[in-house]
Amino acid sequence: MAQVFLSAPLLLGLWKTVAIQDFERFGRIDYKRPRIDSQSGMMPPKLAQMMLNLSISRGVVYDPFCGSGTILLMAGELGFSKIIGSDILPRAVSDSNENLAWYENGFNKKLDYEVFESDVLSLPSRISNLEIDCIVSEGYLGKALRGNESFEFIQKQIATLEELYIKTFEVYSKILEEKAIVVMSIPVFVHQTKLLYLDVLEKIEKFGFRLDNLVEEKYLGKRKTLIYKRDDQKVYREIVRLVRLGG
Ligand SMILES: C[S@@+](CC[C@H](N)C(=O)[O-])C[C@H]1O[C@@H](n2cnc3c(N)ncnc32)[C@H](O)[C@@H]1O
User: What is the distance between the alpha carbons of residues 23 and 20, in angstroms, rounded to a whole number?
Assistant: First the structure.
């Protein structure tokens, strides 16, 4: 097994291993899975793993914007007890199913999973009975951008997505029990040198969620959330974690 050892200084000249990454296994999941959807934005498995770890759970996980299933695959890799995915597109459902079957065969590991077709805003009522511990999801990023779009175009896109994300959390508030965790990536648009965030977090909290602080005190600025980006991207991802409150 090929491994990378991540080390940290212990004492003068002494180091201790704090984590081991099996990069060949990671690379196989990243590059060899049969279905990758470059249209809806390719999600790196490392980002999926990081978001799943932020959920603190290994129980029932649901991704309602599953695309070709990177989060579902990595949930299998991390040992979540049940993995549920859905997407508005039939193609995404078949891609996710194909990737998950490939993983089961290739890694000789049986997963408990189901993937179904649904708009997140009209989920089947049985979803409320599934006792979901966490939602981990990379939400819709909007229409693919070429980079020459006008400010007005991006503003329109932002308004449409704000409505989708707010309504999505209203749905989450109906299907999640107290203490369930939501880890989501929300798009952030880059226009010239400016970052344009969706203005949704305060509205989402009003549905009965608490936004967690993911930023170390010494780095805390205006936002409690993390940004995942590559410098050449036109849309970054804002990683948020919310906890469902009771009452
Ligand atoms: C950024 S992609 C997710 C990619 C995914 N993480 C992967 O690994 O492939 C967002 C997905 O949201 C889906 N989507 C967009 N609007 C939706 C809606 N209203 N309900 C459910 N899914 C939706 C799209 O079809 C797309 O597959």
Answer: 9
